[in-house]
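For the sake of transparency, this paper describes our internal protein records without simplification. The record that follows is passed on verbatim for readers who wish to inspect the format:
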Amino acid sequence: MSLKMKNLMEQTGESKSTILFYVKEGLLLEPEKPKPNLHLYDESCINIIKFIKYLQNQFSYSIAQIQAIFKENNFNFSDDFSIMLKSLQMMSGSAGGRWYGDEDFLELAHLTQQELEDYIERGLLFRQEKGFNEQELKLVLVLKRAKKLGLNEQLFNEYVKSAKALAKIEYRLGAEMLEQDEQKHNEHYELLFDSILTLKPYLFNMHTMQEHQKQMELK
Protein backbone atom coordinates (compact mmCIF):
# COMPACT_ATOMS: atom_id res chain seq x y z
CA MET A 1 0.00 0.00 0.00
CA SER A 2 1.30 3.44 -0.94
CA LEU A 3 0.53 6.70 0.84
CA LYS A 4 0.38 10.28 -0.32
CA MET A 5 2.21 12.88 1.73
CA LYS A 6 -1.08 14.05 3.26
CA ASN A 7 -1.96 10.51 4.39
CA LEU A 8 1.51 9.96 5.84
CA MET A 9 1.23 13.21 7.80
CA GLU A 10 -2.16 12.19 9.17
CA GLN A 11 -0.98 8.72 10.16
CA THR A 12 2.15 9.92 11.96
CA GLY A 13 1.34 13.44 13.13
CA GLU A 14 4.55 14.72 11.52
CA SER A 15 4.88 17.78 9.34
CA LYS A 16 5.74 17.74 5.66
CA SER A 17 9.08 19.44 6.28
CA THR A 18 10.06 16.80 8.89
CA ILE A 19 9.17 13.93 6.56
CA LEU A 20 11.15 15.48 3.74
CA PHE A 21 14.08 15.93 6.15
CA TYR A 22 13.97 12.23 7.04
CA VAL A 23 14.06 11.38 3.34
CA LYS A 24 17.00 13.73 2.81
CA GLU A 25 18.90 12.11 5.71
CA GLY A 26 18.26 8.62 4.37
CA LEU A 27 15.95 7.54 7.18
CA LEU A 28 12.99 7.18 4.81
CA LEU A 29 13.01 5.67 1.35
CA GLU A 30 12.58 8.01 -1.57
CA PRO A 31 8.92 8.08 -2.63
CA GLU A 32 7.74 6.67 -5.93
CA LYS A 33 6.88 9.35 -8.50
CA PRO A 34 4.39 7.92 -11.01
CA LYS A 35 3.44 11.51 -11.97
CA PRO A 36 5.29 14.82 -11.68
CA ASN A 37 3.11 16.05 -8.80
CA LEU A 38 2.38 12.69 -7.20
CA HIS A 39 4.75 11.28 -4.59
CA LEU A 40 3.81 7.93 -3.03
CA TYR A 41 5.42 6.63 0.17
CA ASP A 42 5.62 3.01 1.24
CA GLU A 43 3.34 2.07 4.15
CA SER A 44 6.42 1.02 6.17
CA CYS A 45 7.27 4.73 6.49
CA ILE A 46 4.61 4.95 9.20
CA ASN A 47 6.51 2.57 11.47
CA ILE A 48 9.85 4.13 10.63
CA ILE A 49 8.60 7.56 11.67
CA LYS A 50 7.02 6.11 14.83
CA PHE A 51 10.33 4.51 15.73
CA ILE A 52 12.28 7.72 15.09
CA LYS A 53 9.88 9.69 17.29
CA TYR A 54 10.13 7.11 20.05
CA LEU A 55 13.93 7.20 20.07
CA GLN A 56 13.90 10.99 20.11
CA ASN A 57 11.23 11.38 22.80
CA GLN A 58 12.26 8.59 25.16
CA PHE A 59 16.03 8.51 24.70
CA SER A 60 16.83 11.97 23.25
CA TYR A 61 18.69 10.35 20.34
CA SER A 62 20.07 12.65 17.68
CA ILE A 63 19.50 12.05 13.96
CA ALA A 64 23.12 10.91 13.66
CA GLN A 65 22.61 8.32 16.42
CA ILE A 66 19.40 7.08 14.80
CA GLN A 67 21.17 6.80 11.45
CA ALA A 68 23.83 4.65 13.12
CA ILE A 69 21.16 2.43 14.71
CA PHE A 70 19.44 1.93 11.36
CA LYS A 71 22.78 1.08 9.77
CA GLU A 72 23.76 -1.46 12.43
CA ASN A 73 20.38 -3.21 12.73
CA ASN A 74 18.18 -4.94 10.17
CA PHE A 75 14.63 -3.80 10.83
CA ASN A 76 11.50 -5.01 9.07
CA PHE A 77 9.42 -1.86 9.33
CA SER A 78 6.46 -3.46 7.55
CA ASP A 79 5.82 -5.67 10.58
CA ASP A 80 4.90 -4.09 13.94
CA PHE A 81 6.09 -7.02 16.02
CA SER A 82 9.31 -7.34 14.06
CA ILE A 83 10.26 -3.74 14.75
CA MET A 84 9.18 -4.05 18.38
CA LEU A 85 11.29 -7.17 18.83
CA LYS A 86 14.34 -5.56 17.27
CA SER A 87 13.78 -2.42 19.32
CA LEU A 88 13.58 -4.35 22.57
CA GLN A 89 16.73 -6.26 21.65
CA MET A 90 18.51 -3.01 20.94
CA MET A 91 17.29 -1.34 24.13
CA SER A 92 17.94 -4.27 26.48
CA GLY A 93 21.03 -2.62 27.88
CA SER A 94 22.96 -3.23 24.68
CA ALA A 95 22.71 0.02 22.72
CA GLY A 96 26.18 1.50 22.31
CA GLY A 97 27.86 -1.04 24.63
CA ARG A 98 30.59 -3.59 23.99
CA TRP A 99 29.80 -7.03 22.67
CA TYR A 100 31.67 -10.26 23.35
CA GLY A 101 31.78 -13.57 21.54
CA ASP A 102 31.70 -16.82 23.51
CA GLU A 103 35.47 -17.06 23.96
CA ASP A 104 35.96 -13.53 25.29
CA PHE A 105 32.83 -13.69 27.41
CA LEU A 106 33.87 -16.95 29.05
CA GLU A 107 37.28 -15.48 29.90
CA LEU A 108 35.86 -12.24 31.33
CA ALA A 109 33.07 -13.98 33.25
CA HIS A 110 35.34 -16.82 34.45
CA LEU A 111 32.84 -19.40 33.25
CA THR A 112 33.22 -22.77 31.60
CA GLN A 113 31.35 -23.44 28.36
CA GLN A 114 29.14 -25.93 30.23
CA GLU A 115 28.25 -23.35 32.90
CA LEU A 116 27.35 -20.81 30.21
CA GLU A 117 25.16 -23.27 28.32
CA ASP A 118 23.45 -24.24 31.57
CA TYR A 119 22.56 -20.62 32.36
CA ILE A 120 21.23 -20.18 28.82
CA GLU A 121 19.19 -23.39 28.95
CA ARG A 122 17.63 -22.32 32.25
CA GLY A 123 16.67 -18.93 30.81
CA LEU A 124 18.96 -16.95 33.11
CA LEU A 125 21.20 -15.64 30.31
CA PHE A 126 20.64 -15.05 26.61
CA ARG A 127 23.03 -15.28 23.68
CA GLN A 128 21.92 -12.39 21.49
CA GLU A 129 22.63 -11.70 17.81
CA LYS A 130 25.92 -9.98 18.60
CA GLY A 131 26.83 -12.27 21.46
CA PHE A 132 26.91 -11.04 25.06
CA ASN A 133 27.17 -7.53 26.50
CA GLU A 134 28.07 -5.76 29.74
CA GLN A 135 24.66 -6.51 31.21
CA GLU A 136 25.24 -10.25 30.91
CA LEU A 137 28.62 -9.85 32.62
CA LYS A 138 26.95 -8.15 35.59
CA LEU A 139 24.29 -10.86 35.78
CA VAL A 140 26.93 -13.60 35.82
CA LEU A 141 28.47 -11.95 38.89
CA VAL A 142 25.09 -12.11 40.65
CA LEU A 143 24.62 -15.76 39.73
CA LYS A 144 28.15 -16.70 40.82
CA ARG A 145 27.82 -14.84 44.13
CA ALA A 146 24.63 -16.77 44.88
CA LYS A 147 26.36 -20.05 44.10
CA LYS A 148 29.42 -19.15 46.20
CA LEU A 149 27.22 -18.32 49.19
CA GLY A 150 25.31 -21.56 48.75
CA LEU A 151 21.98 -19.77 48.34
CA ASN A 152 18.92 -21.53 46.98
CA GLU A 153 18.36 -20.42 43.37
CA GLN A 154 14.59 -20.85 43.64
CA LEU A 155 14.11 -17.07 43.41
CA PHE A 156 16.00 -16.96 40.09
CA ASN A 157 13.97 -19.87 38.74
CA GLU A 158 10.74 -18.14 39.76
CA TYR A 159 11.89 -15.01 37.92
CA VAL A 160 12.30 -17.05 34.75
CA LYS A 161 8.97 -18.82 35.21
CA SER A 162 7.11 -15.55 35.78
CA ALA A 163 8.91 -13.80 32.91
CA LYS A 164 7.94 -16.54 30.44
CA ALA A 165 4.30 -16.48 31.53
CA LEU A 166 4.13 -12.68 31.38
CA ALA A 167 5.81 -12.59 27.97
CA LYS A 168 3.02 -14.74 26.50
CA ILE A 169 0.38 -12.45 27.99
CA GLU A 170 2.19 -9.35 26.72
CA TYR A 171 2.34 -10.76 23.20
CA ARG A 172 -1.34 -11.75 23.16
CA LEU A 173 -2.66 -8.50 24.59
CA GLY A 174 -0.16 -6.47 22.55
CA ALA A 175 -1.39 -8.09 19.36
CA GLU A 176 -4.98 -7.28 20.28
CA MET A 177 -4.00 -3.69 21.04
CA LEU A 178 -2.27 -3.19 17.69
CA GLU A 179 -5.22 -4.69 15.80
CA GLN A 180 -7.63 -2.11 17.21
CA ASP A 181 -8.71 1.20 15.65
CA GLU A 182 -6.21 1.97 12.85
CA GLN A 183 -6.73 5.68 13.44
CA LYS A 184 -5.05 5.28 16.83
CA HIS A 185 -2.47 2.74 15.69
CA ASN A 186 0.47 4.98 16.51
CA GLU A 187 -0.86 5.68 20.02
CA HIS A 188 -1.36 1.96 20.68
CA TYR A 189 2.16 1.20 19.48
CA GLU A 190 3.76 3.80 21.76
CA LEU A 191 1.59 2.70 24.69
CA LEU A 192 2.74 -0.89 24.28
CA PHE A 193 6.37 0.20 24.26
CA ASP A 194 5.95 2.37 27.35
CA SER A 195 4.06 -0.38 29.18
CA ILE A 196 6.86 -2.90 28.63
CA LEU A 197 9.85 -0.61 29.13
CA THR A 198 8.57 1.78 31.81
CA LEU A 199 5.40 0.69 33.57
CA LYS A 200 6.33 -2.99 34.05
CA PRO A 201 9.67 -2.48 35.88
CA TYR A 202 8.12 0.30 37.99
CA LEU A 203 5.22 -1.87 39.14
CA PHE A 204 7.42 -4.88 39.88
CA ASN A 205 9.91 -2.87 41.93
CA MET A 206 7.27 -0.89 43.82
CA HIS A 207 5.29 -4.00 44.75
CA THR A 208 8.50 -5.66 45.94
CA MET A 209 9.32 -2.63 48.08
CA GLN A 210 5.83 -2.50 49.57
CA GLU A 211 5.92 -6.20 50.42
CA HIS A 212 9.26 -5.76 52.19
CA GLN A 213 7.89 -2.80 54.16
CA LYS A 214 4.77 -4.78 55.08
CA GLN A 215 6.78 -7.75 56.33
CA MET A 216 9.09 -5.48 58.36
CA GLU A 217 6.09 -3.88 60.06
CA LEU A 218 4.77 -7.31 61.05
CA LYS A 219 7.97 -8.21 62.87
